[in-house]
Amino acid sequence: MTKIIALTNQKGGVGKTTTAVNLAASLAALDRRVLLVDLDPQGHATMGSGADKHDLDGSVLDVVLGDKKPTEVILDCPQAGYALLPGNGDLTAAEVELLGGGDGRERKLVTALAELAGEYDVVLIDCPPSLNMLTVNALTAADGVLIPLQCEFYALEGLSALLDTVEQIKDSVNPQIEIFGILRTMFDARNSLTRDVSKQLRDYFGDALLKTTIPRNIRVAEAPSHGLPVTKYARFSRGSQAHRVLAKELIRRLSL
């Protein structure tokens, strides 16, 4: 059965897209059939997967608005190892249309992904860094949420708002949604603030805090400019190894 995971955090710069791309590649390397959905108008997951966001025959916009079927738009990314439902700046138009879309506007992505039932083991949705209608669509479609989080003071404040939104989604349109895990990114154990925030997260969230951490690593930062996940660009780097460990932890945790 397909597991749909939304990667979201309304705070930008926490490694959300980097996690989405590298987790997709790591799961694919472990023989899972993976679809990565780029729902962020910035299109960074599309570029990081080796596709040109400026030269697409179709995008997730067409799918969300019902103009094309997902199978008409999905790209194979052989170097990365997974399939991609690409996105780009055109998604801002979807946000405008969804705002005035009336009843059912939060279920557009649910309808689209239903057409792919059984085709993939895992669907990862890279959400925009804001709590808008695109993110609401992702949370409505998802079985659970993976929250990348940098260990800094303001991150905790943003996390509270995100968890409130997830609870609202759970109470209204998607009662099955869960917090699949909170992932510490750009992690530096030498930093006292990092250690302090980690302790607060562990005390408050318990098992929801993933054991895996993603370290700061230059290879992770370089990989997107080559259109590759770090697992393909520098497979023996610390960043690559950390994402493989993350994939294995989620496989155990979620029975993927």
From TrEMBL:
Residues passing through the membrane, by range: none
Q: Which residues form the AAA domain?
A: 2-179
Q: Gene3D superfamilies recorded for this chain?
A: P-loop containing nucleotide triphosphate hydrolases (3.40.50.300)
**Which Pfam families does the record cross-reference, listed alphabetically?**
AAA_31
Q: Per the similarity annotation, which family is this? A: To B.subtilis soj.
Under which name does UniProt file this protein? ParA family protein
* Species the sequence originates in: Halomonas urmiana
